[in-house]
Amino acid sequence: MPTFFRDLGHALEWRARGETLRVEAWGPDAVRVRAVAGGDLLDGLPGALLPEAPELPSAPVVTLGEHSATLVNGALTVRIDAGTEGRLTPDLPAAGGQLTFLRTADGSELLAEEPHHFWWPGPRLHTATGNGYHRLEQRFRAYDGERLFGLGQHTHGMLDQKGAVVELVQRNGEVTIPYLVSSRGYGLLWNSPAIGRVELAATGTRWVADSARQIDYWVTAGQPADVLGRYADATGHSPVLPEWAAGFWQCKLRYRTQDELLEVAREYKRRGLPLDVIVCDFFHWTHLGDWRFDPAEWPDPQAMVDELTAMGVRLMVSVWPSVSPASENFHVMGDRGLLIGTEYGPLAHADWPDKGLGAYSAQVAFYDATSPEARAYVWDRLRDNYLAHGVKVFWLDACEPELKPGHPANLRYHAGPGLEVGNLYPRENARMVWDGLHAAGESEVVTLNRSSWAGAQRYGAALWSGDIATTFESLRTQIAAGLNVMMSGIPWWTTDIGGFHGGHPDDPDYRELLVRWFQYGAFCPLFRLHGFRGPGQVLEPAMTGLPNEVWSYGEEAYGILRGYLLLRERLRPYLMEQMRTAADRGLPPMRPLFVDFPADEASWAAADSFLCGPDLLVAPVVEAGAREREVYLPAGARWSDAWTGQAYEGGTTATVAAPLERIPLFLRDGAQLPIAEAS
User: Fold this and answer.
1) Where is the Glycoside hydrolase family 31 N-terminal domain (predicted)?
2) Interatomic CA distance for residues 24 and 64, integer angstroms
3) Among all residues, which ones are annotated catalytic?
4) What pLDDT, in 10s, does the model give residues 633-673?
5) Residue 255: strand, helix, or coil
6) Helix 301-310 × helix 258-270 angle, to 10°
């Protein structure tokens, strides 16, 4: 009988029919699995895992048998079955190299590969697309009652994504982070930035890469808090959020001039309102891709930054990856190969308005964020034109990148073909600022990104939910989207409070929505007001929306919003504790109830409330006109209404009052937090 297995010490390898499959211990209670259709495994492909595996507390144990072999790494055991390989052996699987992931403690099944058919294909499929690339498929068994969380940020409104088909591609509001956390006690990272999809069906789970060279995924075992920590160990921990970033961020589309922006900041200070960040949005530049202020509208950036700094306010500036043909950088970047290439046609990837073109749009290119040289070039522009004036906070907008039309197969990156590496772009774009600021001697790095990918947290990259609707339905969707981001290892997240597209400050119905959204936003990791208010929105360089400051929505709303600004300030010490925990342990500051209460089955189904740290349960009001709501309070703790003091037993559902000025909040086991303003 041929020998299929090899003991590599830290890894177990199986080879048959030309395929190579390796299971390698990769951090405590975790393994990395790689497979290629023929030949040796490929090292150095783009992925999310750090270059070096986390240190193991003890060496893995490999055991070889005649028909199977196992690797034991802490709480996780992996078995490879050799398969029948054409022999009539009914008690063995026909598909060779089939993997089963087991709980070491009792040998029970966590997860298992499952062949599509008893003959062909097996659990892994490599279909040639040419030149050494394949359409890759990886299949796993489905389990009744399993719940699945993570996968980044999506607008389908589901917290538990079992039953969904999710595209693995970056779009405005649709953010791919291919990490899943299962209610069965495991986490799985699809360690590939390839364009594809994941199908979480009742008949099985299937991961698909449209064109890539190697299957690569990582699995860890444990409760949700455990697997989030292991994931951070394997892909990188976030830094601690700076104190100032936990405060209030004021933004609108858009402040058109230096004087307009400064006057808003001055008004916050005149009113005694907290303000930590104010935002200079797009079209502040001379041309798209110049990465500098237009002196006609921003004549003295240094004086602006100096005045804001004296008020304790930081300026955040919008930076786009697009480069217009009118930009001073377009031709030199094209000549040096610093723009994303194409397989067919010119280097234009989108049409976008630019100054000086009248009613016409420019056919813009994008810089190649996967190229170290291109990142260095763009950073040099940011250093000379922004950092030199004291600007240290950057808003990395449209960083999917925003292709029109979205044809990733036509793109050629420094890191590889578009289909193989396309999802990597937003993370490498954030890396550009991280590397640049650190090289300039800055220790605090926070970027706000419209897209992300696995591992971006290690570069100080926050995420916001993109250009979303101004409706209660959209607000409901944000709760699930944000919690799934937290379950994907990105601890810094926010929304455009009030939604992005529309909303009139004088509309009573919209004022109610804005108040409810602001209440929710006060308990998100980042607290930021933004939007393009008013009707008749036209995309052009002179665009600007109606007012979007906290005093823009009438006296009743202003009184409520002011109260939540001050509440956020009172909670900042508590929030900073959670940010330190996120950096140390990978435990997000905002999280689903089941992370802290995994033994409570009902907590796994609670999709419209969340924990802000361990002691505060937040239940946003997401229905127009609602003045009360039901709240599930997890078993295993006693809860008290933070506004009234009324006590509740865990494992119950309470109906609580929610007048317009109040978001339901509950404190755990007698916790003391300064929710109510001191009298």
Assistant:
1) 21-195
2) 15
3) 397, 400, 467
4) 999 999 999 999 999 999 999 999 999 999 999 999 999 99
5) coil
6) 10
